[in-house]
Design brief:
single chain; alpha+beta; Sulfate adenylyltransferase; Arc Repressor Mutant, subunit A; four-stranded antiparallel β-sheet; 9 helices; 44% helix
């Protein structure tokens, strides 16, 4: 889920406890966890409600000053239009941040991470990519994903999906443009020779 930067403090301090969306189909699920601006949020419930049933209290819970602002953000839907109501709970900081800073890898850590990379490679159908992607990001930090994808011989969407898998392991970090290895990713790559 995407939130504008002005919502981040309210999400972090728990004053924003709900968001409303005009999705065609649900983009969140109850119990799902979502990373937003260095935070980990949990969707406590996801349901559809008529736009006409929204209240000023709903607007305040969504971080809006009043009901008109909330409805305006939703595109002023007709009263009978269903919108998605997603309850939110701040869980803590994005778990990837702590993980990617952990660069003192034990032999067991290296074995586990290497096994994950090997599983990625075996399930890809296009051959090994995991270590090669780490090497590309190491060699070309901050380079746009389309250029890295060309170097990797992959389509950009596939490349970006693969980088997300590495990011989940705490091995890479997204930059304004491109990526870089995290301290953990750097330590792993160095350990692999």
């Amino acid at each position: 889920m995407l939130f504008s930067a002005d919502a981040w403090p309210g999400l972090a301090d728990g004053s924003i406890t709900v968001t409303f969306r005009t999705w065609a189909r649900p983009q969140a699920k109850a119990g799902g966890r979502y990373r937003v601006a260095g935070m980990l949020l949990e969707a406590t419930d996801v349901l559809q409600v008529p736009a006409g049933s929204l209240t000023t209290a709903d607007a305040h819970a969504a971080g809006e000053p009043d009901l008109a602002a909330l409805l305006g953000r939703l595109g002023s839907p007709p009263a009978d239009r269903l919108v998605w109501r997603v309850g939110l709970r701040y869980v803590g900081p994005d778990d990837r941040i702590e993980r990617r800073e952990h660069d003192r890898l034990s032999d067991d850590d290296i074995v586990r991470l290497r096994a994950r990379l090997d599983r990625f490679d075996r399930s890809s159908g296009a051959g090994p990519w995991a270590v090669r992607t780490l090497q590309l990001i190491d060699k070309y930090p901050g380079v746009v994903s389309s250029a890295l994808a060309r170097h990797a011989g992959q389509e950009r969407p596939v490349f970006k999906l693969n980088v997300r898998k590495l990011k989940e392991l705490g091995l890479t970090e997204s930059l304004g443009t491109g990526y870089r290895l995290s301290p953990r990713g750097d330590a792993l790559l160095r350990s692999l020779g």
